[in-house]
Fold:
Amino acid sequence: MSFDVATSSEDSGYLFYIDGKEVGIWIGTTNYKHVEVLVPAGRHELKWVYRKNNRANSDVTVWLDNLLIPGLADHDKMVLWMVGNIHILSR
Structure:
């Protein structure tokens, strides 16, 4: 699977988990980065989490673009929850 991510924050973090295991973290302000992760066949939980630092008072923006999950057979059962100023998609 792959996606592009960029962040704009002070020192808060944006984390990516597969099946509860942290596989990516972005802290502070970053330009777009292309991320590719090998995910074995089968059912998995993919989770993107924003973790705010209590000292951070500024606005925070995270961009997640070009999400590609090759071989997604049950795309009609995909549930994508993103909380904050981001839309929630559920099928």
About this structure: The longest strand covers residues 61-68. Residues 83-91 have pLDDT under 50 and may be disordered. The chain is about 0% helix and 50% strand.
